[in-house]
Amino acid sequence: MFFEFYCKMKECKGLERYFEKQMEKQKKISMDGDTSIIGNPSLEMKFINPQAIIDTIEITEGMTIGDFGCGTGYFSFPLAKKVGQSGIVYAVDILKEKLEVVESEAKILGLDNIIVKRANLELIGGSNLEGESLDWVCLVNMLFQNKNKSLVIEEAVRVLKKGGRMLVVEWSGDNHFGPEKKMRVTQDEISKLALNAGLSFLQEIKISNFHYGIILGK
Q: Residue 55: pLDDT above 80?
């Protein structure tokens, strides 16, 4: 049983490393704000373009954002640029080595409005953030890796302000690329978890050929 679990997690980490390499290729596009990839039939929506997504949702200067399960920060950096010096991005992850990468890269990019936090998001209060303190929480490609998905969402709800919003991006189930299908979280599952946590469905957004995205409101 343990060996099977270990193999699945090893596979997930391999996929994550592959995905982050793709994000690295797009980093210059994202940070420069060049969304020319959109509309190009040969490139459009192949992989997630963080900057293009952030530009289509209502994130503005001065906001406070939580990037839950931030990984190496491919969403944290364009978020920090978007909210500006008057805003804050909390880059939250359980893995110390990933947070060290975010912290180092943020210094290189001159983004001193990123605050890294090591946290177990499968605990209520696990983010170590104040209640009702965030305008947005982003959960990008992370719920499929969590056993207690409902607790992650409940923690996100706890830290969201009234009227705050949540972006959820997950692997879609109708393609052969990505984690095993039984590990993926369907949009219906997310909607049920969100409803149980007191969230409402606001909008579906196009993400990539391999992912879906939804916006939820508190």
A: yes
